[in-house]
Every structure is written in C-alpha cells, then in structure tokens.
# Entry
Amino acid sequence: MKKLIGIAAAGAMLVALAGCASGGGGAAAEGPKPLDELVVGFAQVGAESGWRTANTKDIQASFEEAGIELKFSDAQQKQENQIKAIRSYIQQGVDYIAFSPVVETGWDAVLNEAKAAGIPVVLTDRAVDSKDTSLYVSFLGSDFIEEGKKAGLWVLDEYKDTTEPVNIVQLEGTTGAAPAIDRAEGFADVIRQNPNLEVVASQTGDFTRAGGKQVMEAMLKSNPDIDLVYAHNDDMGLGAIEAIEAAGLVPGEDIKIVTVDAVKDGMQALADGKINFIVECSPLLGKQLVDIITTLNDGGSVEPRIITEETTFNQEQAIEALPDRQY
# Structure
C-alpha cells in the first residue's frame, strides 16, 4: 500500500530520480522535532460527499492519535479558499502543508511560496498539473485512471454479447478536478474496444448527490433511451437513482449504474440492487499521511507517488462487506 523509505542508499537514489523526494525544509531541516511540537496545515476541498466527510474525519483522527497538531480548513470547493488557507499556513510558519487540490491547475505560485519558505507540501487524494515536481514532496492517493478503467471493464464484460447500441450517460465530477479528468479518460480508453458502447451525454454533477439528481433529470428528458449511468462517485449515482425512480424506472434494471467510491450509502444501494457495480476509492488516507510527515520529520525520504490499494464490488461482495464498512 505505502512504501516509506529511510535514510539509506535507496532513499538517496529516489531523491536523484524524483527531483525532490526528501523533506528539504520544514521540521527536519534543523533535526527531528518531537511529534507534539509539529504543526501541519491541511487544506481540504470541502464536504461535497460522504467520501470527503470520511476522508476529513480519518485525517483528523489520525493526527490526533499521533499527537501532531493539525490546522484544518474547509475550502468549500473553491480554489481561491484553498490558496488563501495555504498562504495563511505559510505565514504561520507551519512545519508541513498538505492539501487535496480542488482542481489540477493554477497552483505554481502558492507552491513556490511554500518552497521559498522551506515548508514541504504533500498532495493528498488529487494531483496538480505542475511540471515542477520539486514543488511538492509526494502525492498520496488513488490511481483515478485505473479506477475509470475498472469501471469500463465491467461495462465491457456486461455488454460483451450485445449487438445493439448501448447508450451510456456519464455524470462527471467537478470540472477540472483530477478524479473527474482521469476517471473519464480511463473509462473511455476501455469502452472504445466495443463500438456498440457510446457515451451519448456527459455533464458535471460536481460530485454531489443534488448535482447528480439534477443532471440525471435533464438527461432522462433529452435521452429517453439510456441503458447505463457511469457516475464518477457514489453520491452522484445516488442522486441519479432518485431521478430514475421519480421517472417511474427501476435503477439497476431498466438503467444500470456503475459508480466510484464505495461509501456506505453507495454500498447499500449496490446490496439492494439499485447500483450494479462499484469501484472502490478509499478515503482512509490519514495514517499514510501521518507516516509521510513523521518520516520526513525524522530526515527520511518518501516516494514521490504513493498509491492506495483498492478493490471493486458487485452486489454479493457489497452485502458481505457492509457490516464491517468503516465509511
């Protein structure tokens, strides 16, 4: 799942390959700090979904358990709020900054400010498109392209014997966000193997249940013959279920649904047969983020890309997993 590398030759080699994979500044610059003296600033996207709420709770709990002070801000899905929070952390002189970028673009200026202040930055959950990888130490999160491919593979298999067109609508995540871009790309890469599979409409629901419902309502009116919904997260899929049922159709049967996340509400809908397949995207990144911070504080190095381990669920697997689901 995670690979943290100590101050050995492997660490030195990684730094050489990655450009900037060691702390470089922050607490470790003057030697390790006691954990109870460390201060980390975390700028969260917002609280747009059950996934995000679980992610926030896990990060806060993990830092509390480690005894590390965590300054937390909620950007309410606005990039300008995140940039303001990061600049505030820089002014406060925190030891490390971590954040989950609202969108991929537009971060170089503030990240250069953090670098100039000697404060290492860790990206969580989402990436930035900066060509200068020295602006952050590591990116911890899922492989969103792979998630899209997993969703596409299920669709490819589900319709492998079809000779008729399959009309797919896509509920996209926040425009410009890494998971929205990558999940769409991975899905498209796979389904193009079958010319009968066609995305006839694609629109952002902004990763929210209300957005998913609203977009699905409009799509049902403009595309009366929808066969499948591919939603970039569970919440939009759950919103789509409401719209489908309101239209007098049966979700999971009349219109099949594939989503990404595997939060409890989504898993329950899968267990109930209203969703057909879910690709997992774990929000439980707190412990790994703490491990990164403590490794850097000790003067060690971390891999520039740390990918979380995730699986997929069908109905039977959801029923089995639900009783022990943490989020």
Q: What stands out?
A: Confidence is low (pLDDT under 50) at residues 1-24.
